[in-house]
């Protein structure tokens, strides 16, 4: 089978380039890991009570990882999904041993470079690719480094992060069809390439190369989506964008809803964290644009506003109907118009009063 990425080389490159974490003693590191595991369990109870959603998995998975482990886990997940898709797109056609080896190794180095950069930025992630139902990853060195930079109370900041990430875990473990639907949309995005399998893979390789080059050269301004996306993929991308905006906005809404009750310094943490999101040196700003992080920031705000609007109109139980099936997920146009979603799914309803 043609190999799109030399995955082993991607893992090795990410591990070699990933920056070391903040200086901590062995005892401190052990304490952080135990604390994050305990706060994950605490956050799960808060999220369940606030949202009315409960995991249908007996022991929802969580792993506290370092930067290299985070990169390796993401490589493994992407490999599991992308390898069979590449085989199907190319008909398992071999492009030639030399071409395959050079292309896959180059892409492996480039992918590893991107993952090394991201491994120093991500606080937590619900990784859906590697195994059913996915797994929650908390990147301990990044959490510690960020709480120190923000001069935040460690307990409060860690619980605040856990509230957000556990909400994502709850979404995927309380809604049985959601992971399969998400993976199906990712597959549909690949299938929607109109230019043929090999051309799509070439575009995807150019996209990875663009990201890697931007890390080395912050003056680069090429749009990765413009390289990878074809007209036939835009409809799929709209659905994926709507879904991710919903999930991110829901997590932000829950974090802000639960936070004031259980995180005493939440207002200070939120203000400092938002300033951190908006700040950054020129390199970081260029990378954020190319990686779509700027889009993700808008998703946080737009998604939170949509969820707030729906809950205001039909309450949390009414909002949870959004997870009934793929047909009740919001359309991209509805994210800016909660009334449109409420009318489509619930029919015309009167605004809720304070007593409701």
From TrEMBL:
Pfam families in the cross-refs: Zincin_2
InterPro entries linked: CHP03883_F420-assoc, Zinicin_2, Zinicin_2_N
Signal sequence interval, chain numbering: none
Record's protein name: Coenzyme F420 biosynthesis associated uncharacterized protein
Species of provenance: Micromonospora polyrhachis
């Amino acid at each position: 089978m043609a190999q799109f990425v030399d995955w082993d080389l991607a893992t090795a490159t990410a591990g070699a380039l990933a920056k070391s974490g903040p200086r901590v003693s062995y005892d401190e590191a052990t304490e952080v890991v135990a604390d994050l595991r305990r706060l994950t369990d605490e956050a799960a109870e808060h999220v369940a009570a606030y949202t009315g959603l409960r995991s249908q998995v007996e022991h929802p998975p969580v792993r506290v990882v370092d930067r290299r482990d985070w990169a390796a886990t993401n490589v493994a997940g992407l490999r599991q999904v992308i390898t069979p898709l590449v085989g199907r797109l190319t008909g398992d056609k071999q492009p030639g041993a030399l071409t395959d080896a050079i292309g896959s190794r180059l892409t492996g180095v480039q992918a590893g470079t991107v993952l090394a950069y991201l491994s120093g930025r991500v606080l937590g992630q619900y990784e859906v690719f590697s195994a059913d139902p996915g797994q929650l990853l908390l990147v301990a060195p990044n959490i510690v480094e960020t709480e120190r930079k923000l001069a935040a109370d460690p307990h409060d900041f860690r619980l605040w992060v856990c509230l957000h990430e556990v909400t994502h875990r709850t979404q995927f473990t309380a809604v049985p069809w959601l992971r399969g639907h998400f993976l199906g949309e990712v597959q549909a995005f690949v299938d929607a390439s109109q230019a043929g399998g090999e051309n799509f893979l070439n575009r995807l390789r150019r996209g990875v190369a663009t990201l890697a080059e931007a890390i080395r050269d912050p003056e680069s301004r090429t749009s990765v989506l413009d390289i990878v996306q074809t007209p036939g993929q835009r409809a799929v991308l709209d659905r994926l964008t709507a879904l991710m905006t919903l999930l991110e906005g829901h997590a932000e809404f829950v974090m802000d809803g639960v936070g004031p009750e259980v995180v005493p310094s939440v207002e200070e943490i939120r203000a400092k964290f938002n300033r951190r999101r908006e700040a950054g040196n020129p390199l970081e700003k260029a990378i954020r644009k190319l990686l779509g992080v700027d889009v993700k920031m808008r998703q946080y705000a737009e998604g939170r506003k949509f969820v707030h609007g729906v809950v205001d109109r039909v309450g949390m139980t009414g909002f949870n109907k959004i997870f009934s099936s793929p047909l009740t997920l919001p359309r991209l146009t509805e994210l800016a118009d909660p009334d449109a979603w409420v009318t489509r799914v619930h029919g015309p309803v009167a605004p809720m009063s304070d007593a409701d």
